[in-house]
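Course assignment 3, question 2. Fill in each field.
Student: A.L.
Task: Predict the tertiary structure for the chain below.
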Amino acid sequence: MSNIAIYPGTFDPVTNGHIDIIKRAKKIFDKVVVAVALSKDKNPMFLLEQRVNFLKESVRDICGVEVESFDSLLVDFAQEKGIKTIIRGLRAVSDFEYELQMGYANNFLNREIDTIYLMPSLKNAFISSSVVRAILRHNGDPSSLVPDAIRESIKCI
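Answer field:
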């Protein structure tokens, strides 16, 4: 059995910070499944299919990374895939409280699930999808915050 982790999120859109976490996770795990959540309640700017495609384009050169979508409890999706480790990124202390709570909740729902928290590099620590969306809404250029593979695609919204 290989060493597999799941990295869930809305990825609305994927950022260089996300890619940083994926690359760090890939150093630890044989395979990383990037799980793109439908997240209707968050009212995403990009459709699920677009977010999945953005991620596939962004990770195509990283061996051992797969991208899938899901619309269920994360622990159920992880169990369906036979994955017992969740990867989450932490940028700041403010992320920690929420992520710790989610990690405990996931473990409560499935005692076999563990969560590992990874920090992005300092140059990516301030980047979030919400920052990118705000820049896009105000006709700014978020090019330096997103992977090269999707720069032109997200400008066309």
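Instructor remarks: DSSP finds six helices and five strands in the chain. The chain has a mean pLDDT of 94.
Grade: pending
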